[in-house]
Amino acid sequence: MPELPEVETTLRGISPHIKNQLVSKVIIRQPKLRWPIPAELPDLIEQHTLLDLSRRAKYLLLHFDTGTLLIHLGMSGSLRVITEKTPVAKHDHFEIVFAHNKSIRLTDPRRFGAVLWLGIEPFQHRLLSKLGPEPLNEQLTGLYLYEQSRQKKVSIKQFLMNQNIVTGVGNIYCTEVLFYARISPVRAAGNISLKRYNILVAQIKNTLNQAIEQGGTTLRNFVGGDGKPGYFKLQLSAYGRSGQPCKQCARPLIEIKQAQRSTVYCTHCQT
Q1: Residues 109, 91 contacting (CB under 8 angstroms)
Q2: Which of 65, 88, 133, 266 could form a disulfide bond with 246, CB atoms 3.0-4.6 angstroms apart?
Q3: pLDDT digits over 43-93, tens only?
Q4: Element (H, E) at 213
Q5: Residue 243 and residue 252 in contact, taking contact as beta carbons nearer than 8 Å
Q6: DSSP secondary-structure letter at 252?
């Protein structure tokens, strides 16, 4: 699914085209996504200006004077800037048309995405209110993770993917940062030292920043907001490389399942 770098790439891709633009029409072609698209949405944002856009975790937030609209790309969704001449495809479920004849269109084959109205206090909504610090925010430090992890027997990978602990570190990039930090994904979070958490946080920030700079990871149906795919997948060191040689020691990487998610790692380099 699109992870934080893909969502951030989408945000940066669409923002210059639609920020400060007037909404002329809202088109709901398929209201049944992960949750129903509010039927009253056209009344809430048509003839209103999109004042700003932001991201929280993997959610895109569109801010109007009437409130905030949340868009989630789900498992296979993409959000693209298009013109009025762009043909409608089978899985194009939602669209916002702006007065300058550009639109953003949500394509979601699996319909696990979401379009929700959060009102004037978006961060009080249940999807956002309990989220942990952003991984690229100064609030995420080695000390913070160290303190949160004390007495925790859950694996470090599951710990990092807990959105209440830290937001947006999904399966792909969690696999990668643990490889770069040389930490076994099966090690208990409570058994990792402060020194290693400092290294881990540095790798989280470095890996995500690199992915954002390179446009996210091209996976399945994801494309960036400008229609261009990401390229970070070309540099993945662990995810998707089960059985291939470790880039550090040349031993074969192994694959296991953790909470129904694939984990690939090196049993020699990651301890």
Answers
A1: yes
A2: 266
A3: 999 999 999 999 999 999 999 999 999 999 998 888 999 988 899 999 999
A4: helix 194-213
A5: yes
A6: B
Q: Is 263 exposed, middle or buried (0-12, 13-18, 19+ CB in 10 A)?
A: buried
What is the C-alpha separation between 248 and 253, in angstroms, rounded? 11
Q: Residue 30: CA atoms inside 13 Å, Cβ hemisphere, count?
A: 19
Ordered strands of the 59-64 beta sheet: 52-56, 59-64, 67-72, 114-119
DSSP H helices, 125-193, are 142-149, 156-160, 171-181
Q: Domain 142-265 is in which class? A: mainly alpha
Cα→Cα distances 232→26, 68, 136, 216, Å:
33, 31, 18, 6
pTM of the model: 0.90
C-alpha 167/C-alpha 175 separation (Å) is 15
The helix/strand/coil state of 129 is: coil
Q: Provide the residue count of the chain.
A: 271
In the block, tokens 């249940």 appear at 126
What span, in angstroms and rounded, lies between the C-alpha atoms of 203 and 140? 12
Q: Give pLDDT tens digits for 216-239.
A: 665 555 566 666 666 566 589 999
Catalytic site positions: 2-3, 58, 261
What residue ranges do the domains of the chain occupy? 4-124, 142-265
Arch. (CATH architecture) of 4-124: Alpha-Beta Barrel (3.20)
Contact 207, 177 (CB under 8 A): yes
